[in-house]
From TrEMBL:
Organism field: Glutinoglossum americanum
Annotated InterPro entries: KsgA/Erm, rRNA_Ade_diMease-like_C, SAM-dependent_MTases_sf
GO CC annotation terms, alphabetical: mitochondrial DNA-directed RNA polymerase complex; mitochondrial matrix
Keyword Ligase annotated: no
Location in the cell: Mitochondrion
Record's protein name: Mitochondrial transcription factor 1
Chain intervals for the UniProt region annotation (Disordered): 230-256
Chief location: mitochondrion
Coiled coil region boundaries: 324-351
Keywords in alphabetical order: Coiled coil, Methyltransferase, RNA-binding, S-adenosyl-L-methionine, Transferase
GO BP, sorted A to Z: methylation; transcription initiation at mitochondrial promoter
Length: 495
């Protein structure tokens, strides 16, 4: 859950677009300790604010919100991950101000400003669920499907959704490169009018990055939009893509390549500096310098040579791709020049240009052609009107969210951990594991203060023996499903 400093920045970024949502209804999934929920609540003053929080450990944090005089909060102990929960909300009459719309109703294809959905889908650790890499991806897929099929709360009109998720999940529906644009992305793009990142980690993700020049062009497009609308652009490093020139000045580019955040590049810079400062030598011993002796290089120097070679080959590859892109631009310009000809002559000239271009491309290796094709598509995607990627259609830069601006999950005590496995587990097991409450053996007399991460090998052995002897322990299949692993996987592991 984000801390107050981060909430202030994010809510400030969202504030102009939320003016129409004053006194709306809010469905709030996994509010946790309620910091983000209370921030939005203070801005919007909703008439109904449903807190879908199944974890009892958070109720004490939410209690002040629920017990406040005139509070419009309502705790709903349903899990937002379970799709049946939303039908229960509707059937229980918890949204009395909302009316289902039919296709012929005037507001059917309009945004419903009287209802807002917010959710925290930042599940950790990530666990595969069916065909999805995580439960979060499944939830995002289901939420976009609900828009398309007009089910659950989307039956009340098009409902805006504000979702927190871990940084690795956002590429599913909001990739920054064509290379990452997959089935889920296209489904989301054809379903939602707008998908925009409000806050996130700094920089792009993973290896599949596009040319830095395209990121600069994309960032300039955002700056022009903001200037046109009279909005000020952050200059204090608070946004993600706002300072491409600073990246160049800081040495994070080489030969036109974007090297910011590349681990190997950081390692290479460190090794180069270390070699200059004589922190390591070229040869293992002084004698190895002499002819006739086996030349044994130090491991650090071997690594330095390897990374130098890698950087050189990468620079060469990018140079060849740039040359092919220039040829493509020449072909496109030539094609444009023949479009005014008569059709027969035009078709003949276009065929000649295509054949000549194909012959020129065939001299490159297959891998080089693949690299060029991707670079060409990335460039084309950005220059389309509107740009192909939702990321390039953004109207403002995302706020940089830093790890220290988030509160981690409370550390789990052994009592809570055991009862999470199965109700009643702690009551049965703890008396049979005496080391847990023995301070001389690393335990604590108050087991609420003994955290799972402090368990010794002796404690774990006692717990396992007691667990195996417990007549009411759940089956392995039940435990796997409780961890979020789907039934098909459970069946596979049971065979």
């Amino acid at each position: 859950m984000c801390k107050l400093s981060e909430e202030a920045k994010v809510s400030g970024q969202l504030a102009p677009s939320l003016i129409a949502y004053k006194n709306c209804d809010i469905i709030d999934v996994n509010p946790g300790n309620g910091l983000w929920s209370s921030t939005l609540h203070g801005h919007l003053k909703p008439r109904t604010h449903l807190l879908l929080e199944p974890e009892e450990s958070y109720i004490s944090s939410l209690r002040p919100l629920l017990d406040k005089p005139g509070s419009t909060y309502r705790h709903v102990p349903y899990s937002g991950i379970e799709w049946s929960s939303y039908e229960k909300i509707i059937n229980d009459g918890l949204l009395p101000n909302q009316e289902p719309l039919e296709e012929h109703d005037p507001g059917y294809n309009s945004t419903n400003n009287t209802l807002l959905f917010i959710a925290n889908l930042a599940h950790h650790p990530r666990r595969k669920f069916g065909d999805f890499k995580s439960i979060s991806q499944l939830m995002i897929h289901q939420l976009t499907t609900a828009v398309r099929t007009r089910t659950i709360f989307q039956r009340y009109g098009l409902v805006r959704m504000l979702v927190w998720t871990i940084n690795a999940e956002k590429n599913t529906i909001l990739p920054r490169t064509v290379a990452r644009r997959g089935k889920s992305t296209i489904q989301a793009e054809t379903t939602c009018d707008k998908i925009q990142e409000v806050a996130g980690a700094e920089g792009g993700l993973g290896r599949k990055r596009r040319d830095m020049a395209l990121d600069i062009a994309s960032s300039k497009r955002v700056a022009m939009l903001m200037e046109k609308d009279g909005r000020e652009r952050a200059t204090d490093g608070a946004t993600q893509e706002g300072h491409p020139k600073e990246k160049q000045a800081s040495g994070e580019t080489e030969g036109g390549m974007d090297l910011s955040g590349r681990l190997w590049w950081e390692e290479l810079k460190g090794l180069e500096e270390g070699y200059r400062n004589k922190e390591f030598t070229r040869f293992v011993t002084e004698e190895c310098r002499q002819w006739g002796k086996t030349r044994m290089l130090t491991k650090d120097y071997q690594r330095l040579v390897h990374l130098r070679t890698f950087a050189s080959s990468l620079k060469k590859k990018n140079t060849l791709v740039d040359q092919l892109l220039l040829k493509e631009e020449d072909r496109e310009a030539a094609e444009e020049s023949v479009m005014s000809m008569e059709q027969e002559q035009r078709d003949e000239e276009l065929a000649k240009l295509a054949e000549s271009y194909k012959e020129g491309l065939s001299t490159s290796s297959e891998s080089m052609q693949d690299n060029f094709a991707l670079a060409s598509d990335e460039r084309k995607a950005l220059t389309m009107d509107p740009p192909l990627l939702m990321w390039d259609r953004r109207t403002q830069e995302p706020i940089i969210a830093k790890p220290e601006e988030f509160q981690p999950q409370p550390k789990q005590s052994i009592l809570r951990g055991l009862n999470t496995l199965a109700p009643g587990a702690a009551a049965y097991i703890t008396p049979l594991a005496p080391s847990l409450s023995d301070p001389k053996r690393g335990g604590r007399r108050n087991l609420d203060q003994l955290r799972v991460r402090m368990l010794t090998a002796e404690m774990i052995e006692e717990i396992v023996v007691a667990w195996e002897n417990w007549p009411f322990r759940p089956s392995m299949g039940e435990l796997l499903m409780k961890m979020g692993i789907d039934r098909a996987t459970v069946r596979e592991r049971s065979l």
